[in-house]
């Protein structure tokens, strides 16, 4: 029943927007505007005692006036009015309520009493509550963007629950910039009723959610998060970032979401036991979401590195060893193949230093050889995409005349450069799909992480080798989690 009820939360056919407002800046305006802008596939009923039309929709003076059934209510009125509205929603038999409103347990003892009161009342009606003190939910299926901030997430296989609305919605925003698509998202708020455990269990059962992200500040001592995560993690990666790791951070967590942060070492041990993949930064959440949604899981920790410059090869080699990944030596037959492509003074080792060969064709030829090498199960390609060709300073007629360059020749040069990058991107995708190994590009360019075309979103790229290596290490960690379960049967 819980799963079916949460299905109605994330896939509602009808929504009552309680506290809807026509005043820009108010929560009831911002959430309703985002729902309408997102192209929600269902029906929205604004509710406001004034009964005026809001954003072109007829407004109802009370919940009871709404015709038919309502799957979801969203409340944005002050905390003092929430209790009576829970009664109204209960009489209407609304199964799920999102309480955007703050001023509950995060503010102290009095707010905590009020929060327990509305939760107990909701449970009496068989109703589930998201929040209070939440920024809302997102669900790609019904095109539901019931969030406070004006974010427009991409659609994809990643689902996330976050104990901070601001952190979570920032992940949606960064995801849109870096080509990471989301299936579902919930800002869990104070977790007065529904908790991170409930959302994790639901995402684990949801076939459209293939990768699960979590931002956690604290978990109640009686939570079953550990066994739920242990059951789900062999089937789907569960990637977590823990906030409140220090004394100052734990104090901030208690004051903003009411979370009991607890000792970091205990949480880290719990994450490991549950098969959850912990990252050390918010950027790491997005980086891992990109890797897990686009890459196959490697069969081993052996990696080949292709680089246009030796220094970046050194930095990448350091990062690989620091993260438990290996650089196997090149076998003789592979060296012979690369000898036919590269200058005679190339490195003849792994990383493969192309000694500043800049054209696309040799890079692609080397990449194909390394991808097919059975001695590795992942490839890092550094410099396959170097950003836009910087020709702005050549554009003045004075400079072109002085250098004897025709405008058309400059345009041809830029077109050739761009076409080479498109070919490299296409080969990266093709090889990864055909061979089944992670092939990750480190772009080294100024337009990193800003894919503008749909095909580029399927090319996994990072702006630095360190970020690429950490994402690859997370994929390798997940392989070990799956192998351990296959070996032990637990």
Summary of the model, kept short:
With 490 residues, this protein is α/β, with parallel strands linked by helices. The chain has helices at 2-10, 27-37, 82-91, 109-124, 165-178, 196-205, 225-232, 247-257, 264-274, 282-294, 310-322, 332-339, 360-372, 397-403, 407-435, 465-488; strands spanning 14-18, 43-47, 72-75, 96-99, 128-130, 136-139, 144-147, 155-162, 182-187, 211-216, 238-242, 277-279, 303-307, 352-353, 378-382, 439-442, 461-462.
Question: Which features would summarize this protein structure in a list?
Answer:
single chain, 490 residues, alpha/beta, Rossmann fold, seven-stranded mixed beta sheet, five-stranded parallel beta sheet, 42% helix, elongated
For the record, give the distance between the C-alpha atoms at the N and C termini, rounded to a whole number: 27 Å
User: Widest sheet: strand order?
Assistant: 7-6-9-8-10-11-12
Q: CATH superfamily assignment of the largest domain?
A: Succinyl-CoA synthetase domains
Binned, the helix content reads 40-55%
CATH topology of the largest domain: Rossmann fold
Largest sheet: 7 strands, mixed
Global structural class: alpha/beta
* Poorly predicted tracts of residues: 386-394, 446-455
CATH class of the largest domain: Alpha Beta
Can you give the mean pLDDT?
Answer: 89
Task: State the shape.
Answer: elongated
Write the CATH architecture name of the largest domain: 3-Layer(aba) Sandwich
Q: What is the domain total for the residues?
A: 3
**Count of strand segments:** 17
Please tally the helical runs, counting DSSP H or I stretches of 4 or more residues. 16
Strand content: 15-25%
Radius of gyration from CA coordinates: 26 Å
